[in-house]
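2024-03-11 09:14:02 INFO queue: dequeued item Aromatic ring-hydroxylating dioxygenase subunit alpha, len=376
2024-03-11 09:14:02 INFO validating residues
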Amino acid sequence: MNQISPVQADTASRATQPDLRRVDCDPDFWYPVAWSADLRKDKTLAVSYAGTPIVLVRPEEGSVFALYDRCPHRQVPLSKGTVNGQTVRCCYHGWAFGRSGRCIDVPYLGKGKLPNGVRTFPVREAGGLIFVFPGNPEKADTVPFPKLAQTDNPRYKTKHFSPRVNCHYTFMHENLMDMNHQFLHRRQMGQIKARFLGQDRGENFIEARYSFMRCAGQQPLAERLIFGKHKDLQGREQPVEEVVTIRTEYPYQTLRITDKDGDLIMDLWTAYVPVDKEQRVTQSFGLLSILRPQTPLLIDLIWPALGWFTNRIFLEDKEIVELEQAAWNEVGHDRNVEIFPVVVGLRELLARCGIPHGTTRPDTAPATPATQPATA
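2024-03-11 09:14:37 INFO prediction written
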């Protein structure tokens, strides 16, 4: 009996699977859309989820609220308006909307029946981020909120990053999950080889574990300061000193590094949020927590070097995933030949948990009723 090669198996799998780059993010999850520090009191901030315009509003008192960022009158962005107490007032004719989305005042209407309101989005703030729930709001209280690295643990210092990348979010998941691409980072990392240690899978997650072996070149300074100096073994195989665990637990992704004793050294949490309607532009939000060394203030001294190092690595990844997206744009469909079982499983997970492109839009939910009392 003829055996099926990995390439043949992948070709057969792709024939029965949807084009992964035409699978949209499921909106029924909590997605970060802004950093808390970017929204000041009595101000608005315009953000977007998959082409849906959203305005974040932070009143002088009370929590942040989020509305559909279009005044129903002339479709002018409410984010161009002004905040007054618990309302945002459109910059054009002064229509005012409360945190419930209801229109509570039209200055020239008097006490007549007020027009339609706008859709609201559930909001939460955590880890220095503002999250919205762009899907069915009735699910917001039952969908688990993600654990955000070690943001609440004083033993760790956390770095924020939020790069925008011109690619489908699935390319980002694949890039981080597949540690076999270290050849790409040889100028930053030296010559290292990923060793696959195993994987786990579930209905909504896939996890891969790796260790790394240095083949040639010097250990980068930032890596040495965080993990300690790795000895030159003069050609002998390097033992497992750290274990890197990468997990996509839909729709989020994490990377955790533990030492040989199992103690957590580094904890990365990231979300890839589609910006445009076609979901070809991704806004990443990441929290990178590093264990503070025993020497006081050492983490503050190495922080700039760590930022420079991680940024250089990311820029190389950014260029690659954008080249992948450009190739997809050119041919109009997914022609990737995937042979690494973990990434094959990851693609199946993303296809299963996502939704077909164009199936639903978060802004299609009805707004508040047309006839409303003048209350917030």
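2024-03-11 09:14:37 INFO annotate: The first helix runs from residue 6 to 16.
2024-03-11 09:14:38 INFO item closed
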